Amino acid sequence: MLANTWGDLRYAARSLSRTPGFAAAAVVTIALGVGVNAGIFVILNGVLFRDLPAADAHELVSIEQSVEGSQVDAGPVRTFTIAEYRTYRDDARTVTGLLAHAVPRETTLGGEAPQRIYGAIVSCNYFTVLGSPPALGRGLGAQDCEPGADPVVVLGHGLWATTFAADPAMLGRPVELEGHQFTVVGIAAEGTYGGSPLLTSYFAPLSADRLLWPGESRFENESVRWLTLIGRRSAGTSLAQVRAELEVIAARIDDLEAGRSTTLAIERASRNTLPFDLRGPAAGAAGVLMGAFGLILLIACANVANLLLARGMARTQEIGIRLSLGASRARVVRQLLTESVLISIAGGLLGSALAVWSFQSLVALVLPTAVHPEWPVPALDLDFSPDFRVLWYALALTFGTGFVFGLAPALQVSKPDLNTVIKQDVGGGGRSGGRLRGTLVGVQVAFCMALMIATGLLLRGLYATYTIDPGFTFRDVAHLSFGTDGGPLFLDREMLAQVAALPGVEAAAYASQTPLGEAISGGEVRLSGESGGRFAEVDAVTPGYFSVLELPIVRGRNFTDAESADAERTAGTRPVIVSETTARNFWGETDPLGRTLLWEDTTLEVIGVAQDARLGGLGEIDSYYLYLPRREGGELLVRSSAGFAATTASSLLAIVRARDPSLVARVLPLEANLAWYRSVSGLVAVLGAALGGLALVLAAVGIYGVVSYSVTRRYRELGIRVALGARARDLMVTVLRRTMRPVVIGAVAGIVAAGALSRILSSALFGVSPADPIGLGGAALLRS
Predict the structure, then answer these.
(1) 354 and 35 in contact (C-beta within 8 Å)?
(2) Chain CA centroid to CA 496, Å
(3) Kindly report the CA angle at 734 between 729 and 736, in degrees rounded to 5?
(4) How far is CA 410 from CA 5, 28, 313, 334, 337, in A?
(5) Which H/E stretch holds residue 408?
(6) Phi and psi at residue 638, in whole multiples of 5°?
(7) What is the rounded distance in angstroms from the CA atom of residue 234 to the CA atom of residue 59?
(8) Can you give the pLDDT at residue 28?
(9) Cα separations (Å) of 438 from 242, 275, 456, 738, 743?
(10) Nearest to 703 by CA among 294, 299, 296
(11) pLDDT mean over 591-600
(12) pLDDT tens-digit readout, 609-634
């Protein structure tokens, strides 16, 4: 068998070398299809599937739970309480150690230049279980996780090397985290896993949670779920044995609480082992990406299959003679598949090499674009270098592609009409060959049409982000940001007055959310007497809010200072301002002023109607949007006179530093939020356009090849028609009538498929309907 395989490979190489144009076209086509798919898998592998950076990472297991019927407070999905962690840690024998870590914490590092960093709150056996001892000093000891223990910290290698200039004398010194002094006991080794995709700047013991996450005391509270568990399997212990033992322990814990039922999920630990749920969004994004890139590969396969089919038909006489001399059909099919796999291997190697290089560079360009301006921009602890998963994926894709595009042509051309071959009529292929070629063309056109229509919608969405009217003014408006934890307590009425008095400031206001920001809040609102409510976005604002955004109140009035000062009361009727769309949806053309609504347990009286605005996002206008009065705190928005923006920013930061020198604050232009929508939409549109353009080129080449082959095979017939007086136009119509039939059928199928695809893309279509006629029609015309 090995000798026959080697002989097939040599014959395939010689055969392909005699047709270098065909070989080059096929290899490049497969390289494009395999390359883009291998490239996107490199990224997904680095984000989701890669083993943790730890010693003998294959021995690490993630432990997650789903609990029903428990009275314990809910927490991040799949997490454990401190009591549950201790029970599993102490009772399990199939693991040599069980560590716990919490959601990565954004923290203020104090000093002369305060900065926001991310740190991990971990159990004191963290470094031991991972097999990652500190580079300097010691790790965390059992005494550090005792209640009331002195606060200590192990610095991340990156923070130590940059902020502290790799000073070994940092051991034993204090550092300030969230206003508390922590003693440095160690320096983590470079690359130590920190429990998230973010680069970890410090490792603090679980007992320090009360200092770094004040107000919850989760370490002392055994009824709060907040910990993610990772264990290391004992020598010779299988994953199934770990599952069996921990399920017994889970059953014992269930017996302590009536009605409780626990389901454990125990798998090999990977980058997807996180204390917060990224699997749903990540799986959705991965599915969309792999689906789109998979369509490119299918188009490439159909393209090369058509080329092989045309080439096989030209070799009908050769194949017929081999069959006549006693070769079995299976032997001929194997030889033809060997050629296909050889093409696929060459294309796969070329495509994978280009993909690994290009997609790694692409990540560095794309990630900053996808970061919202209100978010801090932390360094990421991700590795996109190829590993065995990438290798096996590329190999499976390469060989699978070779069989996919090679099998149908091989089966088709390996059953020629020997009688025709003996008469040396090489025009074989028959109707079945024509049907197969037509089917392959239809598949290419359908997939290409779906991608082109999706591209058209994405480009329309990008255009909308630049032309859509959000309903309020961004220009000369600044936003005071304090990171993901919101504003500090000193954002009071006194500070608002101080800001409003700054030179060049025209208006200042507090709001519960920033226009086009990341936070969206709301609740159920209904009319009196209604049993069911409708979800409404609710923004609590001070009276200056409408002046800051130049958002007109078209009917009624604004909140008064007295209503703002009295905003925290819950008894009695409270004033509310509604959007124009909200007023129409509740009361039609009837005057809404003086009307009442029920929001949660509060009665609201409409005192004004504000112009519609896209405050929560650039999509459709919210059906229900309410403005409530606010006393103080929240998000600070400031409008400055033209030319005073830089001066205003420095003055705002000076006020913040005067109140709390350790606080990290940023002044961001409100236009940055709009720019983020544009950058994300542009990123998606460019990706869609690249895929659509690639699909269009592949499909065009495929259709050209089929038409060219069809004309070549009909030379004699067409020559006879010309001799009998047929005109060139008649011949063209005859050829196009047959070749365009699968194109039209494929186009119709692609339009139908694009309807479903547009629903998936709807979240990226800011201000554009998934059924937008311009986007759909323009892409279809371009494809035609």
Answers:
(1) yes
(2) 38
(3) 90
(4) 17, 21, 10, 8, 7
(5) helix 388-413
(6) -135, 130
(7) 8
(8) 86
(9) 54, 51, 26, 9, 8
(10) 299
(11) 91
(12) 999 998 887 777 888 999 999 998 88
